[in-house]
């Protein structure tokens, strides 16, 4: 908690990778992220909220229960983890991260990845210490992956076409309407209606016209 208050995001990341728990509270019942937010160290808050241990993803690279095959091929774990832990959530950035890795930029690979993301999302919402922020992030990336699949299947320009659609602005003011609709659609499809974060997002966005 003292480290996050200092504002050193690199050390915060190193502590997390070394196994520091993000849900431990101090004497006044605050987590490290809450204390960092309180003193204005928002970079540290971002690092903590975006941290996802690699071992939690590696769980899906091994057959579980009656499964004969793992849900996620080992070769996809690294590229997927890079996207999961990115702090830049712009849809174009996520698509570029997919595009730059040939292992990931295939329909079958993205199908496996988005199904794992959906499982992680479900686990985040159903665990004892619910993590709505991480659940929403996993769902959002899953939605972008599914849209990537659509472009890979249906468009000759594939992911380049997706990026162009996201960046294209409407004639009157240059506003990227497709990008806005994609983000709103991902929020609308979030499967846990009782989530406080979802309700806050809906209240903020619903009254605003595109």
From TrEMBL:
Entry-linked InterPro entries: Ankyrin-MYND_dom_contain_2 (IPR052452), Ankyrin_rpt-contain_sf (IPR036770)
Gene3D superfamilies (UniProt xref): Ankyrin repeat-containing domain (1.25.40.20)
Domain of life: Eukaryota
Membrane-spanning parts: none
Name recorded for this polypeptide: ANKY2 protein
Species of provenance: Climacteris rufus (rufous treecreeper)
Top-level taxonomy: Eukaryota, Metazoa, Chordata, Craniata, Vertebrata
